[in-house]
Every structure is written in C-alpha cells, then in structure tokens.
Write a structure and sequence with these properties.
Shape: rod-shaped
Helix content: under 10%
Number of strands: 9
Structural class: mainly beta
Largest sheet: 4 strands, antiparallel
Distance between the termini: 42 Å
Strand order of the largest sheet: 3-4-8-6
Length: 142
C-alpha cells in the first residue's frame, strides 16, 4: 500500500503475519521512500508458528477402590487454549481393555472445552493402571 507521511508526523502501518507451518519464521518487509536514492528501509519480522495448545483439567485420574464387575467413570476436561482448531486422539498406553475413553478422537474449536469420559470396568480383584496419552495434530506440546 502507498501512503503519504506529512513532515514531523507518524503513520501506523498495520502488519499481519499468518504462520503456515510450525517453526521460526524470519522475513523482512521493505519501505521505499519515493524520490529517495537510498535503498528501501528494511524491517525484519520474526515469529514462531505454533500449533494448537490443549490443557487438561487434571494430570492424574484416581478411581480409588471400586467394585469388580461394575463400571466406574470420571470426567476429564480437555480445553483448546489456542485460536485454531485442534484435532486430538486419546491412546491408552497399555491398551488395557478395562479402561475406555470417550470420545477417543475429535476436533476442538478455538477456546472450546470437551468433557472426556474415562471409564473402567474391572473383571479381577487386582490393581489396574494405565497411562492416557492425548495426541494433538500439529502441536509441539508434550
């Protein structure tokens, strides 16, 4: 765009950067002064392309003592804290059939919350445990 800057004044120039990949981005924009023989003024721009950021309501789920052959459920709230949609998948590390997460996959819109249902159905009177991983597409979080 072109603009005229009056002597001894300033003009705000809005600049929008849209990251299209996950990584550091280094670019420059140039301002040419009409009638000047000097090279254009360079303005370096830096940003970091970041994928979706999700948070969970609790880092641990403890069912405590529960009855055998009775289903028990606890909620786990997943929140998309970013301004872009987040595709996720829930994976139980040991693939233990006693545990189940619903929904297992989905998409959270920006700032949306979703309650996951983590349930267990025990068929034996022994200690059960597993780890739940929530994989987020294009995220750098762990």
């Amino acid at each position: 765009p072109k603009s005229v800057i009056q002597p001894h004044s300033t003009v705000d120039v809005p600049i929008t950067i849209e990251a299209t990949r996950l990584d550091d981005l280094h670019r420059s924009i140039f301002f040419k002064i009409v009638g000047s023989q000097a090279p254009p003024l360079e303005l370096p721009l830096y940003c970091v392309g970041e994928g979706p950021v999700l948070s969970i309501s609790s880092p641990h789920i403890d069912f405590g003592v529960i009855s055998v052959l009775k289903k028990a459920s606890l909620p786990l709230v997943l929140t998309n804290e970013s301004s872009i949609p987040a595709n996720f998948e829930c994976i139980l590390e040991r693939a233990n059939p006693a545990y189940k997460v619903t929904p297992r996959t989905g998409t959270l819109e920006p700032q949306q919350e979703l309650q996951l249902d983590v349930s267990v159905f025990l068929n034996d009177n022994v200690r059960f445990s597993d780890n739940l991983a929530i994989l987020v597409e294009d995220s750098s979080s762990h």
